[in-house]
Design goal:
The chain has 351 residues and is mainly beta. Helices cover 3% and strands 51% of the residues.
Length: 351
């Protein structure tokens, strides 16, 4: 087995995903010629978009589109070469609007291809430098340091909250409870505010970072769930339980972009808690004792942390999945824990 596939198996234990749905949008006049298409494309490749003219129509011209954006036009039946290097990872929708027999209305041919990562993730290693107590009643959803203080958010309806904690002792400093109808999710601090997500209620909360007083509720502008959250000092990044990480404008709470996360040809789903560390997004993967290190621009997994070794230190019978990543800039170390774990670990990471 290739090293790359082995690492992906550590991260997910999933199967590779093919292009699928090859005939979507095709019609009886023309089809896009996929005879030379590989199972997956990489961002270093180009795609030649040509059509098959099964009915021998007289073709006047063709306008080509990728993801509904016009990328070129030709007279006659010549194919168009399109470079994929600036495209997002994930599905790309090709379309050819074919004008034929002097008609003013084109006939469309469409095809879906999948653009996957050509980056081989590095297997990272960690070293435990300290172990601290963690509340076994905390269903951890978010973990983040702010001005030297550790904050944690939790889930479960009627028992969701976020709170500041003395991480060395586990003592709660201050706690804010969510109304019982909400299932709390990730938190992040940006621009003097605390942002908090809820799971399926499509509602977020904004608090003053100093007083922890609620200032605003907002409704998600996409039909997605709320999972993890982090920021890069300009934008908020959100996971939704799929392979997507969304970019949100903190001022308007509008989603303005997203990436699809891939390790090689494998789509990485159920991304959970997020932490932005030194230009990369560290992401828990639900039900996996592993952390993916993601390029926030491309969505490519660049590193994998196999955290399964922590399990031998966890004895609490109700302990669930690894979840919770917090970077402490003052010590340049990372804090990790899990849902209902009795311990929190301070670690360093290296290649």
């Amino acid at each position: 087995m290739k090293k790359h596939n082995f690492l992906t198996a550590i991260l997910l234990g999933i199967t590779l995903i093919g292009c699928g749905d090859k005939n979507k949008g095709e019609n009886s006049f023309f089809t896009i010629d996929d005879s030379a298409f590989p199972a997956h494309f990489s961002s270093q490749e180009s795609v030649s978009i040509g059509i098959l003219n099964q009915n021998n129509k007289r073709i006047d011209s063709i306008i080509f589109f990728v993801n509904d954006k016009k990328v070129g036009a030709v007279n006659g039946i010549a194919p168009l070469k399109f470079e994929l290097k600036n495209q997002k990872l994930g599905y790309q929708y090709l379309k050819a609007a074919v004008y034929f027999d002097g008609n003013s209305n084109p006939s469309d041919a469409a095809k879906r291809i999948e653009l996957t990562s050509n980056v081989e993730p590095k297997l990272l290693k960690y070293k435990i430098v300290n172990t601290y107590p963690h509340d076994t009643k905390a269903f951890t959803e978010g973990l983040e340091f702010h001005e030297g203080v550790l904050f944690e958010s939790t889930g479960q309806k009627a028992d969701s909250y976020f709170r500041s904690v003395d991480y060395k002792t586990g003592k709660v400093i201050k706690q804010v409870n969510l109304p019982k109808e909400y299932f709390g999710e990730g938190i992040t601090f940006i621009n003097g505010k605390i942002y908090q997500l809820t799971w399926q209620e499509k509602t977020g909360f904004i608090y003053d970072a100093k007083t922890l007083k609620l200032e605003k509720k907002f409704t998600y502008d996409k039909e997605i769930e709320g999972w993890g959250m982090t920021h890069d000092n300009k934008y908020i990044y959100r996971s939704d339980g799929t392979e997507k990480i969304w970019k949100m404008d903190p001022e308007t709470q509008k989603m303005i972009d997203y990436i699809n996360v891939y390790s090689g040809t494998s789509k990485i789903k159920v991304l959970n808690e997020l932490e932005y560390i030194n230009g990369k997004i560290y992401a828990n993967v639900w039900q996996k004792d592993a952390i993916a290190v993601v390029n926030p621009t491309s969505g490519a997994v660049e590193g994998i942390l196999n955290m399964s070794g922590l399990r031998k230190f966890i004895k609490h019978p109700e302990a669930e999945v690894l979840n919770g990543i917090a970077y402490n800039p003052s010590t340049k170390t990372i804090f990790v824990t899990g849902k209902y774990w009795e311990k929190m670990f301070e670690i360093t990471v290296s290649e």
